[in-house]
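Re: the 180-residue chain
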Amino acid sequence: MVAQISALRAYAHTLTRNRQDAEDLVQETMTLAYEQRNALRAPGQLRGWLLSILHNVFSTNWRRQKHHHDMHAQQDPFDEPQVASNQEATVRLAQIHQAFLQLPDDQRAALHLVSVEGLSYREAATALGVPTGTLMSRLGRARAALRAFEDAGASATPSASAAPVKRVQRLKVVGGSDAI
């Protein structure tokens, strides 16, 4: 279980958008997984099982709390760059990260599990507790939203006073498995 903590932290941060809340979510997930360790049927599926527990804990506890709480009131100061970067790629990456964080929770979770964690569609659907078709629909909407964001950024013309800007490469989908 310890080897899976970094994957759990990354997914928890994607869900909570706050490092401290992500750590709390991982802790609660690990505690629950340890208590229910006899429920794991296939030891080879440990990562998917842990991610599923994490998602369920988030859905039942955290989302309800965050719905009534202002997300920006407790924003992690380390989420913002300490020194403004003048590098175009860094700025663009931050913009894409913000666009990712603006996706609805269900789409963001689906995209993270498939694209970042590399789960197959079936594994991600199981972790989220939804049919594979629903997962694929969420992925399609999330990818379309990010492509629309990218198209809007690529087609924007710089102002006359701005320095010339090099064209940024289009987003590419990486990781995951399109096979069911």
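Confidence is low (pLDDT under 50) at residues 156-168.
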